[in-house]
Structures are given as C-alpha cells and as structure tokens.
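Predict the 3D structure for this chain.
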Amino acid sequence: MNNDIFNHLMERLLSKADDALNTYQKDKSNEFYSGRVEAYYEVLDALKSELTVWDYDLDQCGLDFDLDRKYMIGK
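Done. Predicted structure below.
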C-alpha cells in the first residue's frame, strides 16, 4: 500500500471518529455513543503510536494533534 492510499484511509477513519464524537455530544447519556468514541480513540492512539515509532510524518496522515484532548470524553 502506498502512502496516498494509507493517508486516504486515515482521513476516512478520522472523519468517522469525528462523526461518532458529534453524535455523542448530542446525547452524552448514551453509553453506546460514548463507547464508539472510545473505540475510535483506541484505534487512532494505537496507529499514532506505531507510526511515531516508524517516524511516519503524522501531519501527512492527519494525526498531528492531541488525541487525548479531542477524543477522551468524560476523563
């Protein structure tokens, strides 16, 4: 897989994570919605850690931001 394809997949994943976060923010009492956000956080955090180890340019794939600040809800 080349970087363009990977970066596109990351863009889609981040978009879906943002959608999950927006849905949760509309109904914060719904445990399913908070679980979705947490699941996206876990996946993105694991990917970011691996990419950092491999010196991948996080800016290129859209992971150049603080995941904890954005996706760690209720913590």
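The chain has four helices and no strands.
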